[in-house]
Amino acid sequence: MNTLTWEQADELLTRLGPGARVYMVGVGGCGMSGLAHLLLDLGCGVAGSDLAANESLEHLKARGADIQVGHNSDRFTAFDPNLLVYSSAIAKDNPELKAALERDVPIVRRAVLLAALLHRKTGICVAGMHGKTTTAAMLAYALRELAADPSFAIGAHVPQLERHARFVAANDPQHPNLFVAETDESDGTLRQFSPDYSILLNVDEEHLDYFADLQAVCTEFEQFAKQTRKLIVYCSDEVPLREFLSDKYRAVSYGFGPEAAYRIVRSAGVRPAAATHESEFEIWCDDQKLGTFSISLLGEKNISNAAAVITLLHQLGYPAQQIAGALFSFRGAARRQQEVFRDDRFRIFDDYGHHPAEIEATIKAMYKLGPRRLLVAFQPHRYTRTRQLLKQFASCFKGADLLWITDIYSANEAEIPGVSSEKLVEAVRQESQHVEYAPTLDKLRAAVRTAMQPGDVVLFLGAGDITTVAQQIAADLNQDPARMREQIFSRITERISDTTILRKNEPMAKRTTLRVGGPADYYVEPSSEADLAAILRFCAEEKLPFMILGRGSNLLVRDGGVRGVVISLSQPCFSEFRIEGERLVCGAGVRLKTVAIEAKRQGLAGLEFLEGIPGTVGGALRMNAGAMGSWFFDVVESIRFMDYYGQVYDRRAPEVHVEYRGCPLFKNHIALGATLIGQPAPKEAVAERMNGFSQKRWKSQPAAPSAGCIFKNTNVVPAGKLIDELGLKGARVGGAVVSDVHGNFIVNEGDATASDVLKLIELIKQRAKAARGIDLETEVEIIGE
User: Fold this and answer.
1) The dihedral sign for the CA sequence 564, 568, 569, 572
2) Which of 650, 672, 511, 676 is nearest to 594 (CA)?
3) Which residues are 670's β-sheet partners?
4) What's the CA gap between 556 and 594, in Å, rounded?
5) In three state form, how does the secondary structure of 478-503 look?
6) Which SS3 state, helix, strand or coil, does residue 124 take?
């Protein structure tokens, strides 16, 4: 099959530009779906197919890709692509691949196209038989924490990153324009890459369905090292790597051994099982201590992976203290020592390990959790690997107190006569280790769950669908909502500093101007932007709902309360305020009344209308708050905001779309602050205008607790006037009353519930519809259960 080189693929995409149409066969795999995200970032049209639906396909569909389940040449033809991409798992008789050949559509392998995109930037490749996903994810995460804003392509979902692949446009000359790529050696495509920097973790007898032997593997990695243009970072504990790299001037080593340029020294003692960071170590260079580092991942292999990242980042010029801070909060990639459940009874881990060396290292890492029983369930991956490494598999489970082996996951391989899980079970028993055979995943789940006792650690191993058993048992244990909330509270506490306020079951009646509403599961007042970002990332990882709370005006919380996290930006770091000439630089937590008063003191006009709005700058940005004929964005020059993954942005107000009572940007971003602009004027004139607004407000608005205007004004008649004309002033449900001062206000006379207010709202809406044919729309935001 005649396929494109990376140079040809890059030339084709460059020539076609954002209008390129790319069809991807087998798009549901981690590598292919990641590449699809990169192409979408470049503005390409993406379509594709896979045999089964999965979460990766749904993510791509949400971004606009045309994804179908099942391979079909008609769909390929209808899309009329400029390029077809396929993975190594795709058979040569695939109908879409055949259609591309018949129509003379250019074809490229997945890794070759990834190499083409990598060559557009300062490329960093992470290679090795084991640990490359964790290491690449850790490096990409650390670079993001160091504000390098890298592009990346990781071979698994990384909960702390928005997605596992991202191509960043190089618009900012302050950023180093880096691209971190996990590179796959299994099919000979490693030689497609000529990165600026590379990390070589290890070599092993793996992928022997492609490589003849270990020497062939070493030859592949040596050639890859020769193609690295600037610097090779390698593990000197790996003898084959040390043999062909130790005398290379472009190579620098890390490891536990004394010959390593960046030497790892373990901190003494075993950390307690409840510790946030299980692994602490030092790095020494030239007999001088570079620093002390902590990671949340277990075991010497992960410490070694972290040392690789530290070495490269230090070589790139980052100070050790900043590197330590960037690594501290990294939680790992999906199915790489991923803790899927934890409480005072059990800890359950799901791990992708499927090679004897990986299994042995992961089981050894579990020792760090202290004196607990270790239950291990393993699903062999591929018949060829099981046959070739049977002897190593037989002895790699030492340390497991209980062991189950289920049937082989074929990964589309044909069954090999005489190779089976039963034969592996026999080999393990010959090593004097107890093992049970569980032929199906259902039987495995039942056996493990029956054997579990309080205090156990349970480890699921394998690259196939054994992960579903880990997730199912975790879900079973999570059925108790109270227990689950305790776990989440504990895990949030691990992510934040001591100065951040965190509470459980916080009554929202204390936090809203209407003084009604049930409790929030979790209430947080971050003490810094870093803690805010950490909370947002936690919510993204856990799919935990959250909301931002200002002063609680224009908000009605139902009596059942708020599920998830309520975040209040009320700590001093979010309430900073200063005046720079005609400009007022305000944090999101600054009260609008404060802005108006300080503007008056400085003789700045145009902000007087803010004095009567009972909210904060953040809430005013989100709602485009208005009063006295003016809107908040009338006085905004620029804004500062954060996305839900902790990235901070600045934007000028004219670039932001706003509308009546809303700013769509803040439906999925969080306001951090704004720069407002006033007009110089005599202080007396500003004070007089503000006093006029204040008097008008007090005459037209009630003093009792309320949420502000309940309904939006209609095109026919203002809502307050309509309610007055309907004779509803003074109407009551329980402690909720329509104000006698202004018909569009519902006040709490002291004992109202949210249910009272909602019933009164519904009564008003029904009367307006019946009497005048008008559908009133609520302006107040109604949330909760």
Assistant:
1) negative
2) 676
3) 642
4) 24
5) CCCHHHHHHHHHHHHHHHCCCCCEEE
6) strand
Using CB atoms within 10 A of its CB, is residue 542 exposed (0-12), middle (13-18) or buried (19+)?
Answer: middle
What gap in Å lies between CA 733 and CA 756, rounded to an integer? 5
DSSP character at residue 609? G
pLDDT tens-digit map of 410-458: 887 889 999 999 999 999 999 889 999 999 999 999 999 999 998 899 9
Task: Answer for the pair 441, 468: CB distance below 8 angstroms, yes or no.
Answer: yes
CA dist list (Å): 183 to 511, 584, 634: 50, 50, 51
Strands 636-643 and 746-748: unpaired
Dist CA 461 CA 468 (whole Å): 11
Cα-Cα-Cα-Cα dihedral sign, residues 211, 214, 218, 221: positive
Q: How many CB atoms lie within 10 A of CB 422?
A: 12
Q: Taking the CB of residue 453, how many other CB atoms lie within 10 A of it?
A: 10
Q: Which two tokens stand for residue 575?
A: 């309430």
Instruction: Decide if pLDDT at 278 tops 80.
Output: no
pLDDT band at 554 (very low <50, low <70, confident <90, very high): confident
How far apart, in Å, are the Cα atoms of 140 and each of 125, 391, 400, 533, 549?
A: 11, 36, 33, 17, 32
Which pLDDT score is estimated for 429?
A: 94
Copy the structure tokens of residue 130. 């084991």
Task: Say what the pLDDT of residue 646 is.
Answer: 85
Look up residue 106 and give its amino acid. P
Distance CA 137, CA 580 (A): 42
> Which SS3 state, helix, strand or coil, does residue 665 take?
helix
pLDDT higher than threshold 60 for residue 274 = no
Q: Could you tell me which of 492, 624, 504, 622 has the C-alpha nearest to residue 569?
A: 622
Predicted TM-score of the model (pTM): 0.60
Superfamily of domain 338-477, CATH level 4: Mur ligase, C-terminal domain (3.90.190.20)
**SS3 labels along 233-295:** EEECCCHHHHHHHCCCCCEEEEECCCCCCEEEEECCCCCCCCCCCCEEEEEEECCEEEEEEEE
What CA–CA distance (Å, rounded) separates 35 from 179? 13
Q: How far apart are CA 35 and CA 588, in angstroms?
A: 38
In this structure, are residues 210 and 187 in contact, taking their beta carbons and an 8 Å threshold? yes
| Percentage of residues of the chain with pLDDT beyond 90 | 52
pLDDT tens digits, one per residue of 772-783: 999 999 988 899
What would be the CATH architecture of the domain defined by 121-328? 3-Layer(aba) Sandwich (3.40)
> Half-sphere exposure (CA, 13 Å, Cβ side) for 452?
22
Half-sphere exposure of residue 38: CA atoms within 13 angstroms, side-chain side: 29
Q: Where does 17-113 sit in CATH, by number?
A: 3.40.50.720
Nearest to 225 by CA among 208, 254, 248: 248
The number of beta carbons lying within 10 Å of the beta carbon of residue 367 is 15
State how far the Cα of 361 lies from the Cα of 518, in Å rounded to an integer: 48
Answer CATH for 575-699 from 2.160.20.10, 3.40.190.10, 3.30.465.10, 3.40.50.720: 3.30.465.10
Q: In 128-232, where does DSSP find H-type helix?
A: 132-145, 214-227
* Residue recorded with tokens 């090795």: 128
Cα of first residue to Cα of last residue in the chain, in angstroms, is 59
Q: What is the dotted CATH code of the domain comprising 702-783?
A: 3.90.78.10
CA distance 264 to 253: 11
How big is the CA angle at 359 (ends 134 and 222), to the nearest 5 degrees? 60
d(CA 297, CA 304): 11
Does the domain at residues 481-568 carry the CATH identifier 3.30.43.10?
yes
Q: What is the CA radius of gyration of the chain?
A: 30
